Amino acid sequence: MQQNKDIMILGIESSCDETSAAVILNGRKVLSNIISSQISLHQKYGGVVPEIASRRHVELIVPVIDEAVEKAGVKLKELDAIGVTYGPGLVGALLVGLSAAKGLSFALNKPLIGVHHIEGHIAANYLQYEELEPPFMCLVASGGHSHIVFVEGYNKFEILGQTRDDAAGEAFDKIARAIGLGYPGGPLIDKSAVNGNPKAINFPRVHFEGGSLDFSFSGLKTAVLNYLNILSQKGEKVNIEDVSASFQQAVVDVLVKNTITAAKNKRVKKIALAGGVASNSCLRRQMKEKAQENGIDVMFPSPILCTDNAAMIACAAYYGYINGVASDLSLNAVPGLRLGER
Ligand code: KG4
Ligand code: ZN
User: Fold this and answer.
1) Which residues, at least 6 apart from 227, have a Cβ–Cβ distance to it below 8 Å?
2) Can you give the pLDDT at residue 95?
3) Which of 102, 124, 234, 326 has the lowest tally of Cβ within 10 angstroms?
4) Contact, 286 vs 101, CB < 8 A?
5) Whose CA is closest to atom 22 on ligand 1?
6) What local confidence, expressed as pLDDT, does residue 4 receive?
7) By percentage, how much of the chain surpasses pLDDT 90?
């Protein structure tokens, strides 16, 4: 599609515990990105409670969309399309954003574009780096996903590796709970690890045979839990900072090694990080160091664009829109949607 006028997209995201709406201009300029986090609501349960998340999305979705449109200084009728996450995620949570998007699309007679949540995370890099274009390798690591994605084009993806059990962020959250740090665990372990020794405990790093770039974090999680149990049985004190640093190092080693191998295999010189875990300071540092040794550049979005937000969804929707991708009003939430599926 020839682009000869400004294109304004409203994005809506409600797949987990953030209610978010954003307006972006021509795919790259964020005019507003309103994120209402429910973290404090779920904290006392140590994780996201799906029913509570859905109810809160219902309360927040309209005010959050209103605020995004107002802050962007646009009128609803000036929007060109509505982009919305329709999977993967919690079905009840997804349905809230999707219903709002369908309602707006119908009422305003504007195209609806269903967006895969991971495509959104990848697109966050386009918002951070105006010049960035595919192809590049992307490590998407969040609470629900750990994928190595070869981004061949704006709408063309190849998954080169993924977790066979827990996602990286999920592992961070579970271990943080086990050592009493709280929820969400990633940022708390990141902070606690700063004063710990990453070599104090040699936790396992899983690599699969036959060149597979898949991940597995459940054995690591069990190893940390066993370590904690043994100390508790002996009545010995746990050094939380050392456990944090050693666990984090084990996760980061595998994420970095597999991502660099993927980039080398595909001969790409750019690696982008995406998803909540992309905020991890150890991951950012180590990925940069190892990539540099191989002449590869590393990019990562600012923390606000790493965690769930609607600007990244609007950005992914833009690249769908200009390439003629559109959904109709029968679009449904697909909790287990696979990348590249429509
Ligand atoms: O992308 P996101 O906001 O939501 C999902 O799509 O899952 O990611 C949230 C995940 C949580 O598991 C959280 O603990 C993790 O990202 N996370 C981190 C850090 N900040 C957030 N993990 C490691 N280090 C961090 N600094
Ligand atoms: Zn996410």
Assistant:
1) 201, 203, 243
2) 97
3) 234
4) no
5) 186
6) 67
7) 89
Residue 184 preceded by cis peptide, ω within 30 = yes
Indicate whether 148 and 68 sit together in one domain: no
Measured CA to CA, the distance from residue 256 to residue 207 in angstroms comes to 12
Contact 300, 272 (CB under 8 A): yes
The finding on whether 143 has its CB within 6 A of some atom of ligand 1 is: yes
Q: What residues have their beta carbon closer than 5 A to ion ligand 2?
A: 142, 308
The candidate with the shortest Cα–Cα distance to 60, out of 307, 328, 327, 310, is: 310
Ligand nearest to the CA of 304: 1
* Residues 148 and 102 reside in one and the same domain: no
Segment 277-330, tens digit of pLDDT: 999 999 999 999 999 999 999 999 999 999 999 999 999 999 999 999 999 999
Nearest CA to ligand 1 atom 10: 143
Written as six digits, the tokens of 214 are: 């898949």
- How much is the average pLDDT of 130-134? 96
Residue closest to 259 by CA, chosen among 276, 280, 284: 284
pLDDT digits (tens, 9 = 90+) for 110-124: 999 999 999 999 999
Does the model's pTM come out above 0.90? yes
Are 171 and 182 in contact, with CB atoms under 8 Å apart? no
CB atoms within 10 A of CB 114: 26
What is the average pLDDT value for the chain, to the nearest integer? 95
Beta bridge partners of 10: 23, 82
Please give the Cα distance from 208 to 307 (Å, whole number): 29
In which domain, by residue range, is 78 found? Answer: 8-125+306-321
Cα angle 75, 69, 59 (rounded to 5 degrees) comes to 130
Q: State how many domains the chain has.
A: 2
Contact between 314 and 23 under an 8 Å Cβ cutoff? The reply is: yes
Residue 2 forms part of a structural domain: no
CA of 48 to the centre of ligand 2 (A): 13
Flag whether 228 is in a domain.
yes
Residue 45 included in any domain: yes
Determine the longest span between alpha carbons in the chain, in angstroms.
Answer: 71
